[in-house]
Amino acid sequence: MAPRKSESAGRHRAQWVLERIPLDMGGHRDVEPEAVDLEPSGAETSSLDSLNSLTYEFTAASNLQIGLLGRILLGSKGSTPTRSARGLLWAGVMVSIACLLFLVLIFLWAMMGLRHPLTGGELASMVMLVISAAVIWRFWARPLMWLLEDRIIPAPMLLTAMTEDDCQLEMPKEQGVRYIRLVRYGGACPVCAGSIELRYGQGSQLRRLFGCCTESPQEHVFSFDRVTRRGKRIATAG
Ligand SMILES: [Zn+2]
C-alpha cells in the first residue's frame, strides 16, 4: 500500500488515497525480502535458559527444627537408617495404619451386610466408618505408601517444629544404606526471586512434586528431581 495524490480539480483540494502496489512486477521483485532471524541469539538463549532452569537449594536435617514426634521417629539429627530400631518403629507404624484401615473396612463391610432396616444409630456409625477410612487413607496410609514408592513426600507438620517452614521426608540411599530423613528443597524463583516450595500437581500429575513460586504458584512452575536437584520451567496451560 502506498499513498497517492489524486489530480486536483478546480477549487477542490487534492485527495489522498491508498493504492495497492503489486510486489511482483513482471517477475522482478523491487524489494528483496530481508532475512528474518527467528532463532534467538546466543545472549538471548542464555538469558532464557537462566529464566527457565532452577537449581534447588538443599537444607539438611541438622539445620531444621525438629518437633517432638520427629525426634522420636527420626532422632535428634532428623535422619535414621531403615535398618535400625527406629526403622522398626517406622515399619510398626506402617503396619498399624494398614491394620487400622483394614479393621475399619471390615466393620463397614459387616454393617453393609445387615439384613434389617438400618436404625439412625447404625447409619451414623456407617457414616463415621466411611469418614474414618477416608481420613486414614488420605492422611496416613497414602503418604507412607508414596514415601516408599516415590522416595519423597511433603513432611507431615507433626514431625517439624511449629515455627519451621514446609519440609520433606525422603528415603535416600547413601553408600548402600537406605535412610529416612527430614530435608528441605527450596530456592529462589529465577523469574521473580520469590521463594520456591514443593507442591503436588493437579489432575494426572496429582502424585508429582513441582517447585512452585509462592508469588505466582500457577505460572512460575518448575519440575523437580530429588537426585539432580535441578528443575526446568513447566509450560502452564494458555
Ligand atoms: Zn516467581
What ligands are attached or bound here? zinc ion
Individual helix count: 4
- Sketch the major β-sheet: 6 strands, antiparallel
Approximately what portion of the residues adopt beta-strand conformation? 15-25%
Termini Cα gap = 35 Å
Shape: globular
Number of domains: 1
Order of helices and strands: EEEEHEEHEHHEEEEEEEE
- What do the pLDDT scores average to? 85
Q: Radius of gyration over alpha carbons?
A: 32 Å
Can you give the helix content as a percent range?
25-40%
Keywords: Membrane, Transmembrane, Transmembrane helix
Describe this structure in words.
With about 240 residues, the protein is α+β, with helices and mostly antiparallel strands. It contains four helices and 15 strands. The strands form five sheets. Strands 6, 7, 8, 9, 10 and 11 form a six-stranded antiparallel β-sheet that branches. Strands 12-13-14 form a three-stranded antiparallel β-sheet, with no helix packed on it. It has one domain. About 5% of the residues have low confidence. The radius of gyration is 32 Å and the shape is globular. Helices cover about 30% and strands about 25% of the residues. The two termini are about 35 Å apart. It binds zinc ion. Zinc ion (ZN) binds next to loops.
